[in-house]
Structures are given as structure tokens and as C-alpha cells.
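Render this sequence as a predicted structure.
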Amino acid sequence: MMKQIVTAPGMSCMHCKMTIEKAVKGLPGIASVNADPDTKKVEINFDEKTVTLEAIRRAIEEAGYDVE
């Protein structure tokens, strides 16, 4: 398992949190995801053999949020 934290500066509310978490949870190999609108951070625990960080970033971007 790998842990990664990315920043989603556009995340500002609980709706944003749920949208990002749902987008990431839909990918294979995701163990957990926790988006925090207060800090703009998204903590993801995932199996790097199953899903790449790039795929996770793309899922967040396709949900409508920039990733830093």
C-alpha cells in the first residue's frame, strides 16, 4: 500500500469532498480516500500495483477539480 497526499485548491465544501472521494473510490486498488475541504488536502491510500497516482489525479480532474 502506498499513501499519497495531493492538494485540490478548488475544494471548498462538503459537496466537493464527497465528489472527490466518490471519483477516487471508483478506481480499482483504492484502500481509502479522505478529502478535507478545510486544508484542501486529499489523502489517498492505494495499491500502486493496481492504480497509478496519475490515474488518481485524472479522476479528480475529471470530477472538476485541479490537482497540485
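Summary. The radius of gyration is 11 Å. The chain has a mean pLDDT of 98.
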